[in-house]
Amino acid sequence: MLYSTEHKVSPNYPTCLDYIRQHNRDTIVVDLMDEYNRFFPRSIGEDEELGRVHVIHTLGNKVLVMTYTGSILFSYPLEGEFQPPLFKPRALCIRNNLIFISDLRNKMIFIFTLEGNSVSHFPCPDNSPSTPIKRPKGIAVDKDNTIYVSMLDSLQILNSTLPVHQIFGAGKIGKPKDVQLFNEFILVLSWDNVTSVFFLTTDGLVVRQCVIRRHVQTYGYTGRPWYFDLDHYGNMLLIFFRESRSMLELYSQDGNLIASQKLSKLDRPRGLKLLKDKNLIAISAYGENSLYIM
């Protein structure tokens, strides 16, 4: 069950355009290098209740938790608490006071409390469902804890208490990378010959394909977006990246470019998250092992 279409939006909420306009203000840079000189940050989540930012540590197989000003508080899973361990966590979503993580190598979904304590994980190795999760990537969760996971070529729907699998869009939505929810729609960011956002109903019907770029290479950007986020109005924020030339771009749900901002200082940005209540953007820079809060 997704948000009701009667979901009201305050006119005082900032749009993605407001974030882009403020890009040049003071920026907090958090160095996330570990003792092995590696980090490779990816997906970012926001705990609005406690005022924390969560960032996936890809190679360390953990999640770092920090304040809006970049002070690192702790990491999870907690030492010695959780089996099996995370192995290449890919994306996270914070919803209903829980943290949901898609794990690429374990092919599982892990659930934690806001303090990093383990709650559950599935599919279980000794009781795998008949339709296992195949290479989970992006993840979104609705108010009923229904989980939406982008996979290799489709979208998988699960329930956090009793994993019931449904497969949507197989062969019809390219190669999905990330997923978001808005009103009654499931939005799936996908690569194929083009970069698109597909709009699906909760019944799995593909109702629209929003083409973002027809030929990425002609724009000089070797990296397509891995993650995307939505503002309160459903406008879509994406990053097209290159080592020395990346673009933060805002699109309407019709695929029209509304605004863009060059990110010349960031080396291969990947994850991004609108920290809506703080009017900030968090961007993980994969190439320099840093998190930018701007």
Gist of the model:
The chain has one helix spanning 16-21, and strands at residues 28-31, 41-47, 52-57, 62-67, 72-76, 89-95, 98-103, 108-113, 118-122, 139-141, 146-150, 155-159, 166-168, 175-182, 185-191, 195-200, 206-213, 228-230, 236-240, 247-251, 257-262, 269-275, 280-285, 290-293.
Describe this structure in words.
- With 294 residues, this protein is mainly beta.
- The chain has a single domain (16-293), classed as Neuraminidase.
- Helices cover 2% and strands 45% of the residues.
- A hairpin with a 4-residue loop joins strand 22 (269-275) and strand 23 (280-285).
- It is globular and about 45 Å long.
- The protein starts with 15 loop residues before the first helix and ends with a strand.
- The model is unreliable at 1-25 and 214-221 (pLDDT under 50).
- InterPro entries: 6-blade_b-propeller_TolB-like.
Please state roughly what percent of the residues sit in beta strands, choosing from under 5%, 5-15%, 15-25%, 25-35%, 35-45% or over 45%.
Answer: over 45%
Task: Give the oligomeric state.
Answer: single chain
**Fourth-tier CATH superfamily name:** TolB, C-terminal domain
The amount of helix comes to under 10%
Strand order of the largest sheet: 1-24-23-22
- Report the total helices: 1
